[in-house]
Amino acid sequence: MGNQNATGIKRLSNAFGYSMLGFRACFKHEEAFRQEVYASLLLIPLALYLGETGIERALLLGSWLVVPLVELLNSAIENAIDRIGTDLHELSGRAKDIGSAAVFLALLLCACVWLLVLLPRLSSSA
Question: Any idea what the CATH number is for the domain that residue 116 is in?
């Protein structure tokens, strides 16, 4: 895919291109990632609007962005395992389950951060 010996700006340009290919592939083939992209269209502006300080905005935004990031890694694991073979194997299933657990923890982290940042405001306005 490009010059393996590229350096400097050319290397960065190649890396950016590979990243965009990865985003496109994941969006095309992974329903969960598509759902997270669509949720991002709402949650990213909401995080920037609801955060009252830069730190709150960073926490809200960062905790959400961890979710699609982990989904990308989970999808990469699943694709690598499927490339090796589609036959059922205990280790393949375990690796996929562990990747899924990582996505779950990312979602849990996001929910906790959003609740901890926003709940005090809701309870003080009641």
Answer: 1.10.287.3610
Report helix angle 31-50 to 8-29, nearest 10: 110
> 61, 76, 67: which is closest to 18 by C-alpha?
76
* Structural domain harbouring 80: 30-124
pLDDT averaged over every residue in the chain = 94
Residue type, 120: P
Residues assigned a catalytic role: 71
* Mean pLDDT, residues 95-114 taken together: 98
pTM score, whole prediction: 0.88
As for how many domains the chain has, the answer is 1
Residue with tokens 């951060």: 113
The count of other CB atoms within 10 Å of the CB of residue 101 is 12
